[in-house]
Amino acid sequence: MKKIDKGTNHRLLSLDFYRGLTMFLLIAEFSRLFSHLVAPKFEGTILYFIGTQLHHVSWQGMHFWDLIQPFFMFIVGVAMPLSFSKRLSKGDTYKEVTLHVLKRALIMLLLGWSLYCIDAGRIVFRFQNVLAQLSVTYLLAFLVIRKPAGIQIGFSVLLILISEVLYRFFPVDGFTNAFVSGQNFGAWFNTLISGEIGGSNWAMFNAIPTAAHTIWGVMAGQLLMGNYSAKKKLQILFGAGIVGLIIGYGLSPLTPIIKRIATSSFVFASGGWALIALAICYWLIDVKKYQKGVLFFAVVGMNPLFIYLFAHVGGAKLINKMLLPFSNALFGWTGELGAQIALSCLVLLGLWYICYWLYRKRVFIRI
Predict the structure, then answer these.
(1) Whole-prediction pTM value?
(2) DSSP classification of residue 61
(3) From residue 362, how far is each of 106, 240, 310, 349, 365 by CA, in Å?
(4) What is the distance between the alpha carbons of residues 227 and 8, in angstroms, rounded to a whole number?
(5) pLDDT digits (tens, 9 = 90+) for 105-140
(6) Which residues make Cβ contacts (< 8 Å) with residue 321, sequence separation at least 6?
(7) How far apart are CA 267 and CA 273, in angstroms?
(8) Quick one: which of 227, 200, 204, 78 has its CA closest to 138?
(9) Residue 110, CB half-sphere, CA atoms under 13 Å: how many?
(10) 230 touches 287 (CB < 8 A)
(11) Alpha carbon distance 178, 260 (integer Å)
């Protein structure tokens, strides 16, 4: 699409579900449920396999959990044309929309940065978490939201290529091993921005190549708002997803799949999975109308910023402390691990109920 249409509000239940499920998994991490699943007691069982898939790969390769951040960035992109179309239909000018985007990106950056300061107990300059990264990808996606599809694709590929070239050819002593932890361009960039030496191997520069996820989300949102038949939309989504998987996994012998530095192979492969996941949700929920249970996850996605920050800054720990004595009394007979798993499930349910309560009260916290 060449411009943001001033059309009607397009409500996609599949997007509500997709966003809600992704956020549900994100807050589930704060309940520590996933950590319990990889306990030695479960080795060799299906629970242990699920648990490993719900943790990041240490360096090279990809687990399911490595897709969660790309999914979230992609979902934000899908929502962008729908949201901006609604604003324009209510009378906002494009200048007002642009100011809203700039304000929102700045707030996300400050919130993402502040989380590191809270954890460290001092001012630190780190920007690897999803909010800080999203503030950059959101802006880059907005730059091309009114451009033709060819320019959007070209811009996203250019961002990926810039990252690939920098990792392979950036000439700095001590940072010349493109895909070795702590010895690559991403590690140098972390040191440049935050003075971080030998710290996290999550690269701050990831916001540049992973902007492709948000841009592809924008394109998917524009497609779903368009006048194509549902069948045509599904064909395009599935086709684009398969192309992403072919490119991503096809590149992996040359450029390994590494989420922590968002290699080109990772961005393409995870983007392919994000497109296919959206296509499946759209087909099941909006086309086939299998909508039972959608609300359970959708309520979490209706206040994504609030519940992410609440869980991150101690909300999950507070619920844990409140429920611990009751959990021990009810589930202590299952043993230490069983009681811990039960408590984690109760904490997750508590976080979900807060989202549900906000939904029932029609309270939606946005920036």
Answers:
(1) 0.92
(2) B
(3) 26, 36, 18, 20, 10
(4) 13
(5) 999 999 999 988 887 778 888 888 899 999 999 999
(6) none
(7) 10
(8) 78
(9) 7
(10) yes
(11) 13
